[in-house]
Write a structure and sequence with these properties.
The chain is α/β, with parallel strands linked by helices. It contains eleven helices and five strands; from the N terminus they run αβαβααβααβαααβαα. The protein has a five-stranded parallel beta sheet with strand order 2-3-1-4-5, with helices on both faces.
Length: 287
């Protein structure tokens, strides 16, 4: 398996045409059995890297998952991170903001959920909803209590992009590494997956009329994503556009991108000092 993260990485300031980015690529596996074997190897590697992350306590890693409904965000969390010690993992999904969250700036609710050093955090949707769903539905701004002079549609999105980029730069300087994944699913595959939810008794609980309503804004969301991804992909926090029509393939790609990010931190167990060795020697005698 030769998955190269750079093949899916969006260059800083790169323009995005969603129609030109594939929603499906050649599978990295030949059978279901091989897929499971490949994923198992990645899962083991992620578990090992998280243990080093915890032992060093110098960095945090934040995996940001964005995508249209049915893109496979839940499956990524369930399968890719299955080997990480639950104590070293914190997952949060962002839905409709609460009254308390709306009373703060738009980055506040995600800032409160950041992983501490030594842990991997996962955002199932994120602060980017504020330049995606809110942009597609600008009437939501009316409930955010913003000053009237901050609601200019000609400037508000540019200002929010700037706030996001500066905040993510701050996180990077503070030791948090961001791994941002956009799961790129086609409109037809989304339709098929929504129909599966309707037909499968085990998936019907996941179906919402809102999914169908939001599907009607497909083109508007594509435009919002194009500007968002292009504007907020930076050197230290680049976006990765992962083809998501094949869920298994998307999991392998995402797992490798995350694993590469962890390996790039050059994590290692803390060295044992001479003083610590003497202390351990005394403890041994006591035992």
């Amino acid at each position: 398996m030769d998955i190269r993260a750079k093949d899916y990485r969006l260059p800083p300031g790169g323009k995005v045409d969603s129609a030109k980015w594939p929603t499906q690529v050649k599978a990295f596996y030949r059978s279901r059995k091989q897929y499971q074997k490949l994923l198992a190897g990645q899962v083991e590697g992620l578990g090992a890297q998280q243990r080093l992350l915890h032992a060093t306590g110098r960095h945090a890693v934040l995996l940001v998952l964005q995508g249209m409904d049915t893109a496979g965000k839940d499956g990524i969390i369930r399968h890719v991170l299955s080997g990480v010690n639950p104590q070293g993992l914190v997952v949060h999904g962002f839905k409709q903001p609460s009254a308390e969250e709306l009373a703060h700036d738009f980055l506040w609710r995600t800032a409160c959920r950041l992983p501490e050093r030594g842990r991997i955090g996962v955002f199932n949707r994120s602060h980017y909803e504020e330049v995606l769903i809110v942009r597609v539905h600008p009437e939501l701004l009316n409930g955010q209590g913003l000053p009237a002079d901050r609601l200019d549609p000609k400037t508000i999105w540019t200002q929010r992009f700037r706030s996001i980029v500066e905040w993510e730069d701050h996180l990077h300087r503070s030791g948090t590494r961001l791994v941002k994944i956009f799961l790129h699913v086609s409109k037809e595959v989304q339709r098929q997956r929504l129909l599966e939810r309707l037909d499968d008794p085990h998936k019907q609980w996941k179906f919402s009329v809102a999914d169908v309503v939001e599907r009607g804004y497909w083109d508007a969301y594509q435009l919002a994503y194009e500007q968002c991804l292009g504007t907020t992909s930076t050197e230290h926090a680049p976006w990765h556009i992962v083809p998501a029509d094949d869920k298994a393939n998307a999991r392998l790609i995402t797992a490798q991108i995350l694993l590469d990010a962890l390996v790039a931190l050059n994590l290692a167990l803390p060295a044992t000092s001479a003083r610590r060795r003497r202390e351990l020697k005394r403890i041994r005698k006591q035992l």
